[in-house]
Write a structure and sequence with these properties.
single chain; TatA/B/E; 73% helix; 2 helices; Sec-independent protein translocase TatA
Amino acid sequence: MFLQNIGVPGLIVILLITLIIVGPKKLPEIGSAVGKTLSEFKKSTREIMSAEDSSPESKE
């Protein structure tokens, strides 16, 4: 996949492009929103996985 080969220089370039497009004042807000979204996604994933583990149909 493409994301496996980015590396540190690629991340720096992406950060610089984002900084130019968005601007330095909005960057913390976007970072916070991304962090909240990822934590909510992880929470939902854990809930789904625990629901699958406890369901009786999965133990056939």
